[in-house]
Amino acid sequence: MPSEPDVRTVLHAAVEAVGGTERPGQVTMAEAVRDALESGTHLLVQAGTGTGKSLGYLVPSLLRGERVVVATATLNLQHQLVERDIPALKEAARATMDEVPHHAVVKGRSNYACLHRVREGAPDDQGVLVEVPEGSLGAEVVELREWAEKAAADAAVGDRDSAPAHTDRAWRQVSVNHRECLGATRCAHALECFAERAREDARHADLVVTNHALLAIDAIDGVPMLPEYDAVVVDEAHELAARVTQAATDELDPAVIERAARRARPHAEGHEVDDLTDAADTLADVLSRVEPGRIDVPDEALADALAFVRDSARACLSSFPKEKAEGPVEPGGPDAGRQQARGMVDEVRQVAERMAVKAETEVLWLSESRNGPRLHVAPIDVSGRLRDKLFGEKTVVLTSATLTLGGGFDPLAASLGLDPGDDSWSAVDVGSPFDYGSQGMLYVARHLPPPGRDGLGDERIDEIAALVEAAGGRTLGLFSSRRAAEEAAEAIRPRLPDLDIWCQGDAQLPELARRFAEEPSTCLFGTLSLWQGIDLPGDTCQLVVIDRIPFPRPDDPLMSARQRLVEKRGGNGFMSVAAAHAALLLAQGTGRLIRRATDRGVVAILDPRLVTARYGSFLAASLPPMWRTTDRDVVLGALRRLDVPAAPA
User: Domain Helicase ATP-binding: where (predicted)?
Assistant: First the structure.
C-alpha cells in the first residue's frame, strides 16, 4: 500500500466511490490546488457546474499533511461535503493511504443545543428562568429538549441540522449565542457541551469544515473559533465578500435596548437600569423623526441619543456585582442569568459605540421592521480586511462556478482584496463538462421596452405567457422583486389554466422545489433565493425567465455607499459595484438551466439593455457560452420542440 499516493490516484478512487465520472477539468483543478498549497500562492479556480469541484479541492487538501479549513456559504453544500464527498474521500483513502484522515465540522455556538439552557430553562424578558413555555411552542421545546438529552447520552453532534422540525422561536429556547454562553470553565455541563466537543474534535482533524461567517470571525476579527491552520479553501467564493460583510453588520433598535434593561434589572444595582430604559425611549423618539435610508452624518439628536445609549449601557455593566472568580456555576444558580444579561447589555454598548463613532469606512442606515425603526451599521468595503487578515496570513484557494465577471477574474479578485497584476495569486478556469452551445439558448427580448418602475407591464406579461405556453410549463421564473413574481403568477394562471403556477411564498421553498421537480408542467416563480443554490436538473426546468437585469436598488444603503467610495478613489462606481453585482447574479441565474449533460433549454432575459446598453457586453461576457439570439420566433419554436415527448425506442 503506497504511503504517499499522488493526487490523481486518490481522486480517481474517490470519484469511483461516489459513482461519478472523472472529468479533465476536475483533474486540472486538483493539480492546481495541490501546487498552490505547496507553493503558498493564492489561487482562484472557476469550475463550472458538473466539474466535481468538491473532490477537486478535497483530495489535494487531504494529501497536504497539514490541517486545511474548508469554508462554504450554504448549509446545502456543507451537508453535501460532510454526508457524501468526504466519506467517499475517506473510503478512497483506505485503499490508497496508510492512514485515513479525520474530519470535523465547526459551526457557530448558536447552531448547537445548550445543555445548560435545556436543563435549567430559558430566561424570559425579566431574566426569570421558564421551564417550558405554553401552547404549541411548549410542545416543540419539550421535543427539542428530549432530543438534546438523547444526543448527549449518545455522544451525538447535537446541532440544529440533526434536530426534529422546529421554529426559530423554539430553537432559541434551547440554544445560546456566544455572549450568553457561560464558558467552558464556568458551566456545570461543559464536559457534555456539544459546541465544546465539536471544537475539541476539530483540534484533532486534518480537514475542518466551517462556514464563511465563522471563518471571518476567526481570521478577520481575531476571535479564536477554529483550530490552528495555515491554508483555507473557500467554496462558493463569489459569496465571500457578502458573507463577511453580513458577519460584520450590527443592528440596534429601542426594543433590543429595552429587553437588555429588563434582563439586567434583577442583577444590576442602582439606578443605571432606569437610565438604560430612558436611553431606549430617547432613541425611539429620535428615530421616529428620521427617514429610512442611508445616514451619511448623524444629526446632533441622533448622535446624542446613541451616545446616551452607549454611556447608559456602560454604566449598567459597571453596576453588576462582581462574579465569583473561579469554579463552575451550580445548576439552577443565579450566575447564568447574570452572565446572559451582561452579554445583552454589553452587546448594546458595543453596537451603540460603533454607531456613535460612525467611521468613514462604515455605512449607517435606518430601516423599517415589524417592530419599528432599526439602525444598521456595516463596513463599506471588506477587501482591506480580507487582504490583511486572511490573504496576508493564510494560503487561500477560492473556488466557485462563477468567478469571472466581464470575462475576467480581476473584478471579483479586487473585491476580495487581491490586486490585479500582483504575483501573490493566480487564476485558472477549468471549464465545464457541458456543451453550452448545443445544450442551451440565451434569448434576449430586444423588442420589449426597457423595464420601468410600474410593474412588469402588459408587453412583458404577454412575453412570459407565450414563452411558458411554448415550453408547456417547465419554467423557473427569476424576478427582481416579490411584487413582480406575484404579478406574473396572478396574470399567467388564468391564461394557462392547465399549468400549475407556484409562487415563492405559497409554501416553504423545499416544498415548492419538490412540487416543481415532481411535475414537469409546473412553473415556479420567485426572487433572489431562487437565483442561486437551487438545483433542478432534467425536464422539470427547460425555461428560465429573468424579468430584468438585477442591478441593486439605487437607494440600497450599502451598495450606494460602495459606489460612492469607488468614485471617490477615482474609479467607475457603477461598473465596479452595480454592474459587477448584476453580472454575478445573472451568471448564477442563467446557471439554473443546465445542471446535467443531458439538460436542454432556454434562458430568456426580458431586458433589452443586455444588448442595447454600453454595459451590456460586460454583463453578457459573464454568462455561460450558450447559443444567443434575439429572434422570438426561433425561441418559441425551440421550446415547442422540447415540449414534444420523445418517440419510444
Answer: 12-291
Same-domain pairing of 450 and 595: yes
Domain CATH code at residue 12? 3.40.50.300
DSSP-derived secondary structure for 503-564: ETTSS-HHHHHHHHHH-TT-EEEE-HHHHSS----STT--EEEE-S--PPPTT-HHHHHHHH
Is 478 in the same domain as 622?
Answer: yes
Span of 133-137, 198-202, 459-463, 606-610 with lowest mean pLDDT: 133-137
Residues facing residue 72 across a β-bridge: 211
CB 552 within 8 A of CB 585: no
Q: Which amino acid is at 563?
A: Q
Element (H, E) at 37: helix 24-39
Reference 350, options 246, 254, 250, 214; nearest CA is 250
* Identity of the highest mean pLDDT range in 13-27, 205-219, 300-314, 316-330: 300-314
102 lies in a domain?
no
* Grid coordinates belonging to 97: 493511504
What is the torsional sign of CA 261, 262, 263, 266? positive
Tell me: pLDDT of 1 over 50.
no
Assess contact for 315 and 230: CB atoms under 8 A. Answer: no
Residue bearing the bigger pLDDT, 539 or 172: 172
Identity at 20, one-letter amino acid code: G
- pLDDT tens per residue across span 69-89: 999 988 778 888 888 888 888
Measure the CA–CA gap between 338 and 323, rounded to whole angstroms: 9
In terms of Cβ atoms closer than 10 Å to its own Cβ (0-12, 13-18, 19+), residue 67 is buried
- Report pTM: 0.88
In a domain, 279, yes or no: yes
Q: Which amino acid is at 377?
A: V
Any idea which residue has 443531458 for its cell?
A: 598
DSSP letter string over 392-433? Answer: TTSEEEEEES---BTTBSHHHHHHTTPPTT-TTEEEEE---S
